[in-house]
Design goal:
Elements: E1 10-16, E2 22-26, H1 38-46, E3 56-57, H2 67-75, E4 80-86, H3 102-120
Length: about 120
């Protein structure tokens, strides 16, 4: 399925009010679920604040009006996400138990870009 799409990423950035860490919401291809999970998995290996296991891939009825679901339904390419960053900080990595600083969030942005470059070279 990946050969059908140019390297593209739609990532809506949000803050999350109660769940800790940085994580993603994305859609799912039932016949090839790995297609929508490869990019977040790479990001989870690079970014100390991103927790792949906190991410969720699927569409609940309450999420049908969100940007990532509407964009996925329209464009049908795998790398459409909402990346959530907790207002409560993280419970993994080097600063577990602390709130994110602007430097931490800046690092998340750099790691997001680095992950896209790595994904492009797979």
């Amino acid at each position: 399925m990946r050969e059908e799409w140019p390297i593209s990423l739609f990532c809506d950035l949000h803050g999350h009010s109660w769940k800790k860490n940085v994580f993603m919401y994305g859609c799912n291809y039932p016949k090839a679920p790995e297609e929508t999970r490869i990019f977040p998995f790479i990001l989870g290996k690079i970014c100390p604040y991103f927790n792949f296991h906190d991410s969720w891939f699927g569409v609940q009825k309450s999420k049908e009006a969100t940007a990532w679901v509407a964009t996925f339904n329209e464009l049908k390419f795998p790398n459409i996400f909402t990346m959530e960053s907790s207002f409560c900080g993280n419970d993994i990595g080097p600063n577990a138990g602390m709130h994110f600083t602007w430097e931490n969030l800046e690092q998340v942005g750099r790691d997001l870009c680095w992950s896209l470059l790595l994904y492009d070279n797979i």
